[in-house]
Amino acid sequence: AIADQAAKYLHMSGTDFYYNPMVDLARRLDETSPGSTPKKVFFGNSGAEAIEGALKLARHYTKRQTIISFYRSFHGRTYGAMSVCASKAIHRRHFSPMMASVQHGHYPYPLRPFFGHRNPEDEAAACLEFINDHLFKMLVKPDEVAGIIVEPIQGEGGYVVPPANWLPGLRQLCDEHGIMLIADEVQAGVGRTGEMWACQHDGIEPDIIASAKGLASGMPLSAIIAKAEIMNWEPGTHATTFGGNPVCCAAAIETIDLIEGGLKQQAARMGQVLMSGLQGLVDKYDCLAEVRGRGLMVGLEVVKPGTAGTKGADYPGDKDGDGRNWLVDQCFEHGLLLLGCGENTIRFSPPLVVSEAQVHKAVEILETVVRQYKGG
Question: Which of 111, 115, 132 lies closest to 123, judged by CA?
Fold first, then answer.
């Protein structure tokens, strides 16, 4: 698809003239997006650019200022995106002041519940109550909030999968107050979790979706997908020269065809194989606290050996970021490419075409390294 499009033409600024790949891709994104509401699409080049546009759109449509995000969230490193981040201090260090009118709430983390509820749905309810009882009463009235931006699964924050009532609860809260619900699907979207969009697992329709990364299989492309009535801004309000490049659009169309043609089901199947294998390691080694994820977006939390249960029966153990980093480095030496996320979690995010044999090999390599870490 890339070679065919490159042979025709490489660039035309979609700000000035539409061309077939751009229109065809917008139609495919409309067809595959959650819900039945008609959508409009704006194309950019990166995830951070999509987030910036989504924040602008929420403010423009509502004529309000405040954005609510969540602790441990990551949305990008440009100024607006950085301002709604709250996962690592290094992302914001020496860059203040941030964008004004941003507040942060708590994202439910079932393994380490901020409000102390061991039942995940009770913890999610407490996080929702914090918005109503703290943010809305003490910091900003809901009629001043333009949007709530949320990752359906937290990425950089630790591959945290929220309870089933979290996203529907946010959807209800936004509906009650005319707030735009912005889903950051940059990392979780486009088939990775076993659905086209991660928010589809919980049956919600966001007002605005930001997508990038896997959208064009490595080509620089992002998209803002929004309900048509919302993305009704005047010409000149938002634009970009290179967003929606025809070669990138052609790659994205082919990608979506492959995702919808079976790769999202493949991601779901291989994710089950991977999580089953990793759960076997969690059951054997006390330096591993939990495996969590959906599809091929899987996190494995690393803790200091012997610390589970030391601060209560449900205590998962002390976070071990140094141990996590050692495991990741040693896996690299053994031919397994992994990354960290959060303070102490290993992220598994393989290509959606990964085979079952490759998944088993990855688990085998990891176990070899864990044994070395444990001194055996």
Answer: 115
Residues 81 and 56 in one domain: yes
Q: How many C-beta neighbours within 10 Å does residue 207 have?
A: 27
Residue ending a domain, among 220, 240, 262, is: 262
Tokens linked to 122: 């009770």
Note down the domain range covering 198.
Answer: 2-262
Do 281 and 206 sit in the same domain of this protein?
no
Residues 169-189 pLDDT 10s: 999 999 999 999 999 999 999
Q: Which of 114, 175, 186, 117 is nearest to 145 (CA)?
A: 175
pLDDT given at position 11: 79
- 70 has pLDDT over 90: yes
The total number of structural domains in the chain stands at 2
Instruction: Let me know whether 67 and 210 are in one domain.
Output: yes
* Phi, psi for 154 (deg, rounded to 5): -65, 130
Q: What pLDDT was estimated at residue 376?
A: 53
Give 199-217 pLDDT, tens digit per residue: 999 999 999 999 999 999 9
309 and 173 in one domain? no
What's the confidence (pLDDT) of residue 15? 77
Domain end marker among 210, 227, 262: 262
CATH of the domain at 213: 3.40.640.10
pLDDT top residue among 88 and 106: 106
